[in-house]
Design goal:
There is one protein chain. The protein is an alpha+beta fold.
Length: 100
């Protein structure tokens, strides 16, 4: 995972569905999770599937904190004015050379 995102902390991770439950089986079945089967089950293209990576230690801490605790997953919507706040426009260099 560090090869993909160098900002990730060390440690085991869990995969979560958007409702905050751990990915173990295909929802509503006893079949072990596989991305292909999940895609077919929910009828969405891969680009529209949302799963979340969570540190296992934090996930278990939230589970053990009691019934008043819950995991809240927030998804930015595309219509929000601030959704592009952390996005910079791509400026092509044209005829300029770019440093490596």
């Amino acid at each position: 995972m560090k090869d993909f995102n160098k900002d990730l902390l060390e440690g085991p991770y869990v995969l979560l569905y958007p409702d905050g439950t751990e990915v173990v089986t295909i929802p509503g079945t006893q079949r072990p999770f596989s991305l292909d089967e999940y895609k077919e089950e929910i009828g969405k293209p891969y680009a529209r599937i949302n799963l979340f990576i969570f540190l296992k230690e934090d996930f278990e801490g939230a589970e053990n904190a009691g019934s008043d605790s819950e995991i809240v997953v927030t998804i930015k919507s595309g219509g929000d004015e601030l959704s592009m706040a952390d996005t910079l426009p791509l400026e092509e260099p044209g005829n300029e050379s770019t440093p490596i």
